[in-house]
Amino acid sequence: MSHISPSAPSRRQFLQTSAAVGGSLILTNTRSSGAVVGSNERVRIAVAGLNGRGQSHIAGWAKANNVELAYIADPDAKVLANAMKGLEKRSEGKLTTKPIEDIRTALDDPSVHAISIATPNHWHSLLTIWGAQAGKHVYVEKPMSHDVMEGRVAVEAQKKYGVVIQHGTQRRSSSGIAGLHEALKSGKLPRLKIAYGYCCKPRGGIGHKTPTDPPSNLNWDLWKGPAVIDQYHANYVHYNWHWFWESGNGDLNNQGTHQLDVARWAIDDDQTHPVKVSALGGRFQWDDQGETPNTMFAMAEYPNGQQVFFNVRNVNYKGYKKQVFNEYYLEDGSVITGEGNYQILRPGATKPEKLELEPGNVTPGGNWNAFIAAVRAGDPNLANGNVMDAHYGCVLGHLMNNSYRLGVEVPFSEKAGKFGDNADAAEHFSRLHAIMRDGVGVPKDGGKYIVGPTLSFDPETERFVGQDAEQANKLLKDPNNAAYQVPTVENV
User: Fold this and answer.
1) Residues in domain Gfo/Idh/MocA-like oxidoreductase bacterial type C-terminal (predicted)?
2) Helix or strand or coil: residue 8?
């Protein structure tokens, strides 16, 4: 085992204390079958998926301490070749990285310590599970899961095989965000009422692509993997898969996973999943073949009464305001804004004041080096955003999406949502509606919202209960292709 930073033991102590008072942070019943890395040994990593975030993974591991990029994998031969060319330019003739089509080649190599997953969403959990079964530590892009049940299997795989799993939610490495959340939970600040996340980025439509045979450079069967997709079209490869339910989760669980995770992180530590969730929205402005909403207002309530609100607004128009951040509404009426450094607007005040906070407890080194520190220590709890954090945050988004997917069309109106006595929800939806009406110009006649039901969820069984449960539970697990089945909890 290697020496780790002096602050790491205090983080372990902090996590153990959190678990003792009701949290679910400690990953118990593990056996350390993950590859043990000596203090002077290079951590050998294989990256799966080489577009977009995959390039960020390559760059991140290149800067991490004593790390070797052993393999890069992609089912698109052109993408793989281009990635190798980029590595060759940087290596000055000393490149040891091997290009492979299928990441299972790296999983079979006993000299590989970890895999780094940057594939489309539908592959994330299965690769995480395969990695754990092979004794490899796993860094997995957000969202860790494409549906609720496969996320639970990933959790059980971590428990069984004892590997480090870290989620690609980089804000988990922010001591500033951690400090705010610790202050909210310790009583140093008034109690949190609503944690609010925004994923409002300007985007455009994707048009319509005619189904065709896949290009010769793409191993389409391997790209699909577990996802049951009827036929190839060019909008799947290599980014717009985000906007189809078989392969993506919409921006709520794409960019939004970061802000959802921060919002859930702020909820009291003894809370796991929400008990009620609902969502409404639509795919406005674009006439394309995408399926997921580009506009959404969603809310979730936890057993202790705390709530998470979420706003997706991925349209574009003159004067569009980008918002990718979190807000915190406290029970005394205060509102906290910022990221890492914060301001608080107190009741009756005319302007916010700076909020002075102590840094929170995270494993130092940023998300890349925090993962390496956890791998060297053989301690899953040192990961900034461990498998339990990942599961709870991802499920929150899945439940919101499931409500939307069961929704019905109603006229475009400020009264589309049914919020009961939740005045806060009504107010925030009203703000979104005004933007869609006045900014985007959605017409009153002809525009439609999709309004999802309020779903009840049992955090213990991770199943829907009550009204609409039968239909909602069908969305807990996606079908898989025969050669790429996600295992059950019992046979992981």
Assistant:
1) 209-283
2) helix
* CB neighbourhood size of 117 (10 A): 27
Q: Are residues 166 and 270 in the same domain?
A: no
- The answer to whether 332 and 289 have CB atoms below 8 angstroms apart is no
Q: CA-CA distances (angstroms) from residue 237 to 126, 242, 331, 417? A: 20, 10, 46, 35
How far apart (Å, rounded) are the C-alpha atoms in residues 116 and 411?
45
Q: What is the CATH number of the domain that holds 257?
A: 3.30.360.10
Picking from 464, 442, 440, the residue whose alpha carbon sits closest to that of residue 453 is: 464
User: How many structural domains does the chain have?
Assistant: 2
Do residues 146 and 180 share a domain?
Answer: no
Each residue's pLDDT tens digit in the chain (492 positions)?
232 333 334 454 434 433 333 333 434 444 445 677 877 789 999 999 999 999 999 999 999 999 999 999 999 999 999 999 999 998 777 899 999 999 999 999 999 999 999 999 999 999 999 999 999 999 999 999 999 999 999 999 999 999 999 999 999 999 999 999 999 999 999 999 999 999 999 999 999 999 999 999 999 999 999 999 999 999 999 999 999 999 999 999 999 999 999 999 999 999 999 999 999 999 999 999 999 999 999 999 999 999 999 999 999 999 999 999 999 999 999 999 999 999 999 999 999 999 999 999 999 999 999 999 999 999 999 999 999 999 999 999 999 999 999 999 999 999 999 899 999 999 999 999 999 999 999 998 889 999 999 999 999 999 999 999 999 999 999 999 999 999 999 999
Which residue carries 């705010």 as its tokens? 180
**Cα torsion 179, 184, 190, 195: sign:** positive
Task: Say whether both 344 and 473 belong to one domain.
Answer: yes
**Residue in 15, 34, 8, 57 with CA at minimum distance from that of residue 368:** 57
490 lies in some domain: no
Is residue 254 a part of any domain in this protein?
Answer: yes
User: For residues 169 and 50, what is the distance between their CA atoms, to the nearest angstrom?
Assistant: 18
Residue ranges making up the domain that contains 166: 7-173+363-386
Cis peptide before 143 (omega within 30 of 0): yes
